[in-house]
Amino acid sequence: MLAERLKLFATLTSERTASRRSRTLRRSLGGAISIAALGLALHVVGAGSAPTPAHAASHACGAPAEMLTKGLDAYGQNQYELAIPKFECVQRSDDALSKLHAEFFLARIFSDDTGGYTDHAHAYMLFQNISDSADTVDPDDPRRAPFVAKSVTAIAGYVRRGLPAIGLKSDLERAVEYYRTAATTFNEPDAQFEIGKLHLSGNGVPVDVALGLHYIQKLVQEGHASAQAYLADQHWRGTLPQVSKDHARALAMSKIAVENAGASDRLWIEDGYQNMYCGTTAAERTRAADIAASLRRAFARAPNADRSVRVAQPPMALGRRQPTLSRTCGNGEPIDMELRAGINAPPLASTLTQSAPQQTTPAGMRPRVDRP
Prior knowledge:
By secondary structure, the protein is mainly α. It contains 15 helices and no strands. It is globular, with a radius of gyration of 21 Å.
């Protein structure tokens, strides 16, 4: 069923908890750049930046639902040249819901630096168009909310980095507003990850280690690969007093991150695992294997875990699928990419020290409700 396919692509849960929507988003988005200026930039910049499928102009369009399904099939197989004309057919239709989904995946394609059709100006326009509906979309609507949340998060990234091609300047303060809208109103994991890191570093927001670690730990337990890799790095470096420096634990958490990584994150997460593996002793690796086994059991039964984000390489993820590479250390030693132990290690209560928050809910975050 198309609805089930879209729900899987979204990889987000729709929890039924009341939340106050942010009313500043539309004004901020409108101030980022005018549609007229963006259209001019697209005419100049986008015309030659992304190749267009040869048959796109003459492609016959069928029913929107049918075209969307075909587009999703092609997208899931990384056949962007086939997906683009299907989505563009839907984009020209009067089916509002299918049009939203088509525009979202077109934006994903144009924002993908690995797919051969990169056009960030066009992607920004599409994400902005979807984000404009954030104030009117029910956060618990699984047909629309996940796509709006991801679009708001994408806009936050563009505003944070800036986009010179369309005259968009970097503005961290406004980016934080977008992240907070996505993180608190829509419970969007990637936005929560960015907010968590910002609070730990104090970059653009006040330093709040407890709040930052709350976000990170929550995502770690839900199988968010980037958060797991980030926590692994904190255990490796030991720069935060609240996170113990422990190379074996860092290696174990890094391996869990590799197992949960999607296509767009796999390379850098595996790079981190390689660096840690090559920097540990045989005894530390043995202990790490036991810890990893314990973490897999703990995360699998976490009461608040979002099972949907644990799907390996969800189709919503950016980037083409890359095979796991055979890796070696600098001395030629092969890297054990499995790191599995046959010993039943005792369960671990937490990957953080006891001083880290365990049961609190940050102000404004929609608390999770366990479902049967």
